[in-house]
Amino acid sequence: MNIFYPVQILADWLTYSVFGIMPKTLLAEVVDFFIYDTIKIFLLLVVIIFTVSIIRSFLPPEKIRNILSHEKKYVGNILASFLGIITPFCSCSAVPLFLGFVQAGVPLGTTFSFLVASPMINEVALVLLFGMFGWKIALLYIVSGLIISIFSGIIIGKLKVENLVEEFVYKNKLNGQFQLPEMAWEERVKYAKNYTWDIIKKVWPYIVIGVGVGAWIHGYVPTAALAQYAGADRWYAVPLAVFIGIPLYSNAAGVIPLVGALTEKGVAMGTALAFMMAVTALSLPEFMILKKVMKIKLILIFAGIVGAGIVFTGYLFNFVLGR
């Protein structure tokens, strides 16, 4: 049984009864799609973000730094990538925490694993992908994102590029000793409510715009047009999608509804997800902020490694899913 069936009933009622739109028209498809997806996404977001924020209340930034400061080979990269899932920062807002990790003595490769994972794979992406494509696609996406973030950090760590980080970063190193106040459950629930509301306030415009664009594509863009140029049989589709995605700046909430509409119109899943990864994990605003703490050469190394991982993942998705 579809748990969102009542949402579909509500969307149909609003579209045909309240707004009085003629059934079986392109406009009706667009409006019904927009209402249904918007309500479904917000319901999922509230439930999942509240749950994850309860977990996050046990992991304040100071504790995260302590966990990642242990210099065990590769363990830090894995932990940093998993922590990125429950710390839903966009690529730009993850940079200050990245800076804090470096100053706390966390290895540079580990901090890069976090920098990739946090904007690319988080509870918002999980909610939207699960709601639009099902758990298999959501799981595949998270696994691929983890692999990219883990190996990106490992490779950067092996390159020994600490000299490409600006000197002032290391001059302000922290001593790693933090006082962590305990929270009562009432405080955790209050924190979760406030955090959920704060996230919803930040992402709702992206969701509305993303679903709106997706609804327009769903109703008005011919299927053959996109499938012709972005199908799985087009070798250039994946790198082109990544190239197009880098100049754009959005988060998962804004771009995943667009991905849903693109795949529905014939764009290969791997190509669409590569586009989403590029938008969320690589962006020009992020590079501008990173320029303040590292040299251009390191930014290019970072972008090249992550970009190559995204392109590979896009091809892999297209091969595995067969479209």
What does this molecule look like?
- The protein is built from 16 helices and no strands.
- It is mostly helical and 323 residues long.
- It has one domain (5-174, 190-321).
Summed up, what is this model?
This protein has 323 residues and is mainly alpha-helical. The chain has 16 helices and no strands.
Which descriptors apply to this entry?
single chain, mainly alpha
Return residue spans where pLDDT drops below 50 for at least 5 consecutive residues: none
Count of beta strands: 0
What is the arithmetic mean of pLDDT? 75
Q: Which structural category do the helix and sheet elements fall into?
A: mainly alpha
Annotation field: number of helices: 16
Radius of gyration: 21 Å
Helix content: over 70%
Could you describe the largest sheet, including whether it forms a barrel? Answer: none
What is the overall shape? globular
SSE string: HHHHHHHHHHHHHHHH
Number of structural domains: 1
Seen as an oligomer or otherwise, the chain set is single chain
Q: How is this fold's topology laid out?
A:
Layout: H1 5-18, H2 26-56, H3 61-68, H4 75-85, H5 94-103, H6 108-120, H7 123-133, H8 135-159, H9 167-171, H10 185-220, H11 223-230, H12 237-245, H13 252-264, H14 269-281, H15 284-290, H16 296-321
